[in-house]
Each structure stands twice: as structure tokens, then as C-alpha cells.
Design brief:
By secondary structure, the chain is of the alpha/beta class. The chain is about 45% helix and about 15% strand. Strand 9, helix 7 and strand 10 form a beta-alpha-beta unit. Helix 4 packs across helix 7 and helix 15 packs antiparallel against helix 16.
Length: about 475
């Protein structure tokens, strides 16, 4: 079955055809490492991981680049404000390098907890400064860029199809419609963006800076991704992915500078994931709703239960997070693990009919929620337990729930809980229903739940 994906560039689903047969070059905009990433950021990482997993499941060799922005990303995407890394460095009284190391470590702990696959390359912007200088010089030499006292800017009026990805009218951007106040009066157009900031004016005390032929300073955010994609994947890549918030500025600017510098198409397919909301509102640090994965874990939830929650919404759909929703996801995840444990230890053969159903769903623009539905249908089917297990473990290469490991884990029930279960079972045998109900409630207070089956009481951790 051919993979179809929604290409933001043309606003339609298209059949996927890689540049090189059986190989996919995939670039994903990684985090700006100035603070702990919230669960909305982690949803973006999960969406990219899902794309990689589907591609690998379909036997593609995937070259996956996920970058770290550790310089040059200002507090506004429109070249305004302070460098985010340096702002955190001053607040925490650390060096920019220490800030980057600190938050990369936390981020990578979170990616491991969510069972995200390791990218092929994880470049840092600061490791690619020479290549950025080279691309900026190329843009200057070709006449696509110009210099003011403050920065080197890209001239958007000279870019071909500048607004193709965003769908905005270039005429309006050139007039500065809807733009913030322009701080550099020597910019030719309000929409022109910085390729390189000079160590002068508001950036005179910049903590990170490099020498270049055009002046001492540091790179703009947009040039970084173009260079890292080019360096590790080539001038034209198969798939570029990021959040929908990157469409109008960051990704639009990436295309403009990349294609102007190389003269060839930058990316054939553009994928964009929607946002994770909290209580149907945008996450807010000031409102205390920019939850981190560690906060979820501190409340007793398994990070893989959070992954299970994320699997229930398509990447191009908004998803809403609430604590009751998280509790429900934990319960569903626990139930799934218990169902798989009930299948036994023998692994049979992968069922082709259900595998084809699964592939049909996931090749339709990476529809993992429908893939989950197929798995639930499989669990309810008349197939043997052995074949169910083999097929589900095969599906988990895409779902990433670590089911093979979790099904083997033994649950250690505290002795006091075991004693309560024995007393309750004796009460039930003597038809002392009120006493049995009272004991069940005592078991639940110990954070365990009990299920009465034909084979006797089944005890498991309460979600």
C-alpha cells in the first residue's frame, strides 16, 4: 500500500515518492534548549517519532536529523528581543553552554521516557557556524542578502514563491501588514529577516559570538535549520516537519534562503503537527499550565501512558490535555498491558489480514489513532492468543508502547494487600457481601484494584 501524506506545501494528500529508492531523508525542528520542554513540545517530538516509526515499518531506511537550537533564537520569531539561551543564562547565572547542556540532558531523559527513537544525527547550531557563514556569504554574493549596521538580512522580495508555504500575500508582508515595529530602519522590507546579527547595539553584550567575513556576531535562527539540513541530508530532502506555528515565518524563511542559496528545491514534503491544549486553552507558563513530563510522572502517571494518550489523536488535529483525561489514558494503558499479559508467553505468527488493515490505516497520512482501533479489534477477535500476541508486538514497532518489555514485568503486590484479597475472597465465599465490599474499598485505598474472574480474583495497580 502506497504511503499518502498531507503536504502543507500544496495543501493536499500526495503519494510519497522518495528521492532515493527505499531511503528517506527526514529533518525535524528540534527544541531551543533554554528551559524544560513542556508536554506540548514533547507532542511535537512524538509526532515526528511516529512518522519515523511508520517509515521504518514500511522498510525505508530513514536518515533522521533533529537539531538543537543553542544560539540565535530570539524571544520573538520576527528578529526582536533577546537570545533565549542568553536570557536563561543570565537568569540562572550560568554560561550559555551550561544552559544548553542542562536542558539537553533533561530533554533526552524525557525522550527516553517517551520511548522516542534516537535520530541519526542530533546536531547543535553552535557546531555548524562555519557552514552558516558560508551559506550567508553565498546569499550575499548572489544578491539575495544585504548588510546594515545591525545585521545581514535576507531580501524576501527577491525570493521565488516566498509565500507558497504560508499562503500569505507577499505584497502585504512587504508593506509590513500585521508586523511588529521594525527596530532597524535600514531594512529594505519589514518582512526581511536576519541571517546574522552583529555584536552591536542591543546585541553589544552578546555572550556567544563568532568572527565572520561580514562582521563579528551570531547567526539568526532560520539559517541554522537550513544549514543543518543541508549538511547532514543534502540540498534537497524528502520530508521536513515541525509545528504549525512554524509555517508563516520559520519554515517559510528556511525555504527562501535554502533555495536561493542552492538553486534547487529544499524539501519535497512538509508535515506540520497541531498543538496540544490544556483545558482547551493554549499552554501558558504564566498560568502554570505548561506542564513538563516530569510533572506528569510526579503525579504517579507512567510516561508511556502519556504516549498512549498522544496516540489517540491524529498529528494534524489539536489535542486537549486535562488531568482526568490523563487518568483515563493511564487506566486504558493499564488495561491494555493486562490484556496482553493474559495472552500468555507463546508467540505465534503475525496475522496478515490484521497487519494489512493496520498498514492501510497508518499509510493514510500516519493515522495512528485508527491503527489503535485495529489493535483493539484484534484483541476482540477469534484468533489464537499466540497469533494475537505476535501481531500486536509487530504493531508496537509503530505504536512504541514497549509492550514486549511490559508484558514480562511481574507486578509485586504488597503482603498487606494480598491479605486483604484473601479476607475478601473468604467473605465472598461465605456470601458476606457487605464485608467483601468493605474490603474491596480498603484494597482500593491501597491504590490497587480487584477484578473477579472465573479463575479467581485478579489484582492490579489502580490507575
Amino acid at each position: 500500500m502506497a504511503l499518502k501524506l498531507y503536504n502543507t506545501l500544496f495543501r493536499q494528500k500526495e503519494s510519497f515518492k522518495p528521492i532515493e529508492e527505499n531511503t528517506v531523508s527526514f529533518y525535524h525542528c528540534g527544541p531551543t534548549v533554554y528551559w524544560t520542554q513542556h508536554i506540548g513540545n514533547m507532542r511535537g517530538m512524538f509526532c515526528a517519532d511516529s512518522v519515523v516509526r511508520v517509515l521504518k515499518y514500511l522498510d525505508y531506511q530513514v536518515k533522521h536529523v533533529r537539531n538543537y537550537t543553542d544560539v540565535g533564537h530570539l524571544t520573538s520569531d520576527q528578529d526582536e528581543g533577546e537570545d533565549k539561551i542568553e536570557k536563561s543564562a543570565r537568569q540562572e547565572k550560568l554560561s550559555p553552554q551550561q544552559i544548553a547542556e542542562k536542558y539537553i540532558k533533561i530533554f533526552e531523559e524525557d525522550t527516553q521516557a517517551l520511548n522516542l527513537l534516537e535520530p541519526t544525527f542530533k546536531p547543535r547550531a553552535t557546531q555548524c557556524i562555519p557552514e552558516m557563514i558560508t551559506m550567508i556569504q553565498t546569499l550575499l554574493d548572489k544578491g539575495y542578502a544585504y548588510t546594515t549596521d545591525s545585521a545581514v538580512y535576507f531580501d524576501v522580495s527577491k525570493a521565488k514563491k516566498y509565500s507558497q508555504l504560508s499562503g500569505q500575500k507577499l505584497e502585504e508582508k512587504l508593506k509590513g501588514a500585521g508586523q511588529a515595529e521594525v527596530s532597524d530602519s535600514k531594512k529594505k522590507n519589514p518582512a526581511d529577516f536576519a541571517l546574522w546579527f552583529f555584536k552591536t547595539g542591543k546585541h553589544k553584550k552578546a555572550l556567544q559570538y563568532w568572527d565572520s567575513p561580514f562582521g563579528q556576531g551570531f547567526p539568526g535562527w532560520h539559517i541554522e535549520c537550513s544549514v543543518m539540513a543541508n549538511k547532514y541530508l543534502g540540498q534537497t530532502i524528502d520530508i521536513h516537519m515541525g509545528g504549525v506555528e512554524h509555517i508563516p515565518i520559520h519554515h517559510t524563511n528556511e525555504i527562501a534562503q535554502s533555495e536561493s542559496a542552492t538553486g534547487v528545491k529544499f524539501a519535497n514534503y512538509w508535515l506540520h503537527n497541531e498543538h496540544l491544549l490544556v483545558n482547551n486553552k493554549k499552554m501558558s507558563k504564566s498560568a502554570g499550565t505548561a506542564y513538563s513530563l516530569s510533572e506528569i510522572q510526579e503525579k504517579g502517571f507512567n510516561p508511556l501512558a502519556f504516549r498512549y494518550l498522544l496516540l489517540q489523536a491524529h498529528y494534524r488535529s489539536k489535542q486537549n490535555f486535562t488531568w482526568p483525561v490523563m487518568k483515563s489514558a493511564q487506566k486504558g494503558f493499564n488495561n491494555l498491558i493486562n490484556q496482553i499479559k493474559d495472552l500468555g508467553d507463546k508467540i505465534g505468527k503475525i496475522n496478515k489480514e490484521y497487519k494489512n488493515k493496520f498498514i492501510e490505516k497508518i499509510t493514510n497520512d500516519f493515522n495512528l489513532p485508527q491503527g489503535l482501533v485495529v489493535m483493539q479489534e484484534l484483541l476482540k477477535s477469534a484468533l489464537s492468543n499466540q497469533d494475537k500476541l505476535a501481531t500486536i508486538l509487530n504493531f508496537d514497532k509503530v505504536l512504541g508502547l514497549n509492550l514486549d518489555k511490559l508484558r514480562k514485568e511481574k507486578i509485586t503486590i504488597p503482603q498487606e494487600v494480598k491479605e486483604l484479597v484473601k479476607k475478601r475472597e473468604k467473605a465472598r465465599q461465605n456470601k458476606k457481601w457487605a464485608e467483601a465490599d468493605k474490603l474491596r474499598k480498603q484494597i482500593e485505598k491501597k491504590e490497587y484494584q480487584i477484578e473477579d474472574t472465573d479463575k479467581g480474583p485478579k489484582i492490579s495497580p489502580k490507575c
